Amino acid sequence: MAPPRKLHIKSYGCQMNVYDAQRMVDVLTPQGFVETASVDDADLVILNTCHIREKASEKVYSELGRLRLARDEAAQSGRRMQIAVAGCVAQAEGEEIVRRAPVVDVVVGPQSYHHLPELLARADAQGRALETEFPVEDKFGFLPQPRPETIRARGISAFVTVQEGCDKFCAFCVVPYTRGAEVSRPVAAIIADVERLADNGVREITLIGQNVNAYHGDGPDGRAWTLGRLLQRLAAVPGIVRLRYSTSHPNDVDDDLIAAHRDLPALMPFVHLPVQSGSDRILAAMNRKHSAADYRRVIDRFRAVQPQIAFSSDFIVGFPGETDVDFAATLALVTQIGYAGAYSFKYSPRPGTPAAEMPEMVPAAVMDERLERLQQLIDAQQSAFNKAAIGRTVDVLFERAGRKPGQLVGRTAYLQPAHVFPGPGMSPDALVGQVLPVRIDSLERYSLLGELAATPPQHARPLAATGA
Ligand code: SAH
Ligand code: SF4
Ligand code: F3S
């Protein structure tokens, strides 16, 4: 048998890319590849790229510059290193990548990576291979399942893509172009994936999609199911103790999703609901198709059924034409909602998007100043939210042993990292995969520190090996 070839994947961008990188490993494992943590001994390096902002996109080229040197060094010791660019930059720039960086052997878009084995073979034979069409077949039908030991090694929390692409066309955003039209996977395929993950130790599932709550996959009853209905079904999968979903659009929040938050204890009361701006004028220019008041009403619907619920969001500052008054409306909205955390970005014009054609660019210094002010407000809200946990007993799903001896690390319902020392007689490994009450004593940066509030019930057994 040929010795295994070594594969190194570097992923940028969103959760969809994290998921895709794992699925690329699943595609290449049967081809005799094993993962390596270092670029230097890799036979194949894949950059799984993000195109969302200019900075993210340009990173690829500096990385390719470094890879050229690594490849020359490998060549000197008689080893051939192949280099592939996958993800959203691959989709958006295609041949341009090869023109700027001839070192690249394969360019493959996010809907085509199930073809990686053929593309690598074609690059071997012909020197290079590119595929950035949206293929007629659906990649999910061709992706091999991860092996049980792979699932265990990936830990107790897993992403499952249920929906891909976006039909919303916000004026600033490349996703509809890089990921293509919105498509939902069938319910049965998702249940099968989740059951397989749960059978191999996974306890927490995050359903992901660029627009996950637009989910409308075919159900076993021949009807389109909503995300709420899907969540309800997945809550019944044995072993699954926590469910999450990301990223949602305010306009696609429907009654089923609200009902799911009311009815399902496994559905975590923490929702990422990007709003982008608090100004109706800017929201309209962004083609968001909702106002700030619409957004507040959506938040109120969640809060009415689930008082424990907390929110995070995304914001863009300095969208073309944004005035001080518009920006003040964003600060006002943040103050009204009160977030557990949020991401904020300076507007970055993206080629091919309508906003890139808009005049009235906000000066860089103004953008910097607005970003700083918004981030200060969000940081203050986040620390207040985290501080509020001190003195309380909260449920923590334990994920892995910590860096310090005897330490155990998990997350609260709100994804706050929580650290405990279970004490002598309790092996941290045996507690991984369990949800246990923790009394929070203090806060260290973004992490909560505490103690197990009660010994685990007698019947508790290790649910998962982390493979670590
Ligand atoms: N589908 C999600 C997230 C899309 S990308 C949604 O609808 O919200 C993640 C975030 O990147 C966006 O929410 C937005 O805040 C930011 N973003 C997207 N395009 C951008 C651009 N051109 N400049 C700056 N930030 C951008
Ligand atoms: Fe981009 Fe808007 Fe679609 Fe989100 S909803 S992915 S921001 S176009
Ligand atoms: Fe980036 Fe593509 Fe995700 S552009 S944010 S990797 S969908």
UniProtKB/TrEMBL annotation:
One of its GO terms (cellular component) is cytosol. Monomer. Its main location: cytoplasm. Residues 5-125 form the MTTase N-terminal domain. It is an enzyme of class 2 (transferase). It catalyses: N(6)-dimethylallyladenosine(37) in tRNA + (sulfur carrier)-SH + AH2 + 2 S-adenosyl-L-methionine = 2-methylsulfanyl-N(6)-dimethylallyladenosine(37) in tRNA + (sulfur carrier)-H + 5'-deoxyadenosine + L-methionine + A + S-adenosyl-L-homocysteine + 2 H(+). Residues 152-384 form the Radical SAM core domain. Belongs to the methylthiotransferase family. MiaB subfamily. One of its GO terms (molecular function) is metal ion binding. This is tRNA-2-methylthio-N(6)-dimethylallyladenosine synthase. Binds 2 [4Fe-4S] clusters. One cluster is coordinated with 3 cysteines and an exchangeable S-adenosyl-L-methionine. Keywords: 4Fe-4S, Cytoplasm, Iron, Iron-sulfur, Metal-binding, S-adenosyl-L-methionine, Transferase, tRNA processing. Residues 387-454 form the TRAM domain. Catalyzes the methylthiolation of N6-(dimethylallyl)adenosine (i(6)A), leading to the formation of 2-methylthio-N6-(dimethylallyl)adenosine (ms(2)i(6)A) at position 37 in tRNAs that read codons beginning with uridine. It is found in: Cytoplasm. [4Fe-4S] cluster 2 binds at C166, C170, C173. It comes from Rhodopseudomonas palustris. The gene is miaB. Its cofactor is [4Fe-4S] cluster.
